[in-house]
Design goal:
By secondary structure, this protein is of the alpha+beta class. Helix content is 21%, strand content 34%. The protein contains 7 helices and 17 strands. Strands 9, 10, 11, 12, 13, 14, 15, 16 and 17 form a 9-stranded antiparallel sheet that branches. The protein has an 8-stranded antiparallel sheet with strand order 2-3-4-5-1-6-8-7, with helices on one face. Helix 2 packs parallel to helix 3.
């Protein structure tokens, strides 16, 4: 069984003069999510944020901004276009669209270039690739409007590949329940006082949202042996990027991972013991300082040759 864990994501913020985005209610956000071919499973709320757990990843809604993440073969660009048209581009201050390189891009309904062509007609912007084309990389599109992020505005994304040790056993166990996974991760000890919402998919797979005021973190796990993938994302600022990364990587013990940081202030680089840093990207994009790097274990592990299943396309 294979599931494309690599995710697509958009973020947008709106002018202060608009009514709260949260006031649009669940029915509106359900319609937005359905444009991507996903559904809302549940929702939790704080005084500042509504966190929707989706059949494929997550949606976070604040008064003046939105973050939506989807995986699998979802059509996130369609949801982004729906929202941009509903809000009207003149009211949107900042817009980012991300797409991680996929294991099986030909099974997707569109390529990043297709998405950009559609988005550019509604919200003109610039497209980038962070990382080398023949290695891990991230496609990024942002609107060309001048934007100054709020002070202390930061997002950290940790994208992990290849689970190992107990994490691999826990997440691949078909009788896993959300409680068992939570007990293993023990993230409540690392990120205290967060309201938590999670879901264990059958036969395997796991998602969670956690919020505390305007802060959030979210985790999505596609643990199958072929293309195991875990994503972690947060806007927590009370802890350093170094501390957050160490805590998360120690839970999942990936064979390699990418880290992407967006920060309104100068980004402090991180170092991971026993891991090697690949060549990265450091730039200023859309008002943010941006850092992208890949870390991997230097040891070589031998395995068996992979059997390739050939698909019969004669009738297509």
């Amino acid at each position: 069984m294979f599931f494309e864990g690599s995710e697509k994501k958009f973020e947008l913020s709106v002018n202060d003069g608009l009514p709260s985005l949260r006031s649009k209610g669940r029915s509106f956000w359900s319609a937005c999510v359905e444009k991507s071919c996903a559904q809302i499973l549940s929702v939790i709320s704080s005084d500042s944020c509504d966190a929707y757990l989706l059949s494929e990843s997550s949606l976070f809604v604040w008064d003046d901004r939105v973050t939506m993440i989807t995986c699998g073969t979802t059509k996130l660009c369609d949801a982004a276009l729906f929202l941009l048209n509903e809000l009207q581009p003149v009211n949107v201050e900042s817009f980012f669209y991300e797409r991680k390189n996929e294991y099986y891009p030909r099974k997707q309904s569109s390529h990043f270039n297709d998405d950009v062509a559609c988005l550019n007609k509604v919200f003109p912007g610039t497209a980038y690739r962070l990382g080398e084309a023949n290695e891990h990389h991230l496609y990024l599109y942002h609107g060309d409007k001048l934007y100054e992020p709020p002070a202390q505005d930061r997002v950290i994304e940790i994208l992990m590949y290849g689970l190992s040790g107990e994490a691999k056993d826990i997440f691949n166990c078909i009788d896993n329940c959300a409680k068992k996974i939570r007990n293993y991760m023990q993230l409540d000890k690392v990120f205290a006082d967060f309201q938590f919402d999670d879901y264990a998919f059958q036969p395997i797979g796991y998602s969670c949202n956690a919020i505390r005021g305007s802060e959030y973190y979210t985790i999505h796990v596609s643990p199958q042996d072929e293309g195991a993938y875990v994503s972690f994302e947060t806007n927590i600022t009370a802890q350093s990027a170094q501390e957050i990364t160490e805590n998360v990587v120690n839970v999942f013990k990936p064979s390699c991972f990418d880290i992407i940081q967006f920060d309104s202030k100068k980004i402090v680089d991180i170092s991971m013991e026993n891991l090697v840093k690949k060549r990265g990207v450091r730039d200023t994009i859309g008002g943010y300082n941006v850092l992208y790097k890949t870390y991997y274990k230097p040891d070589i592990q031998y395995g068996k040759a992979e059997v390739i299943k050939i698909e019969d396309n004669k009738n297509e």
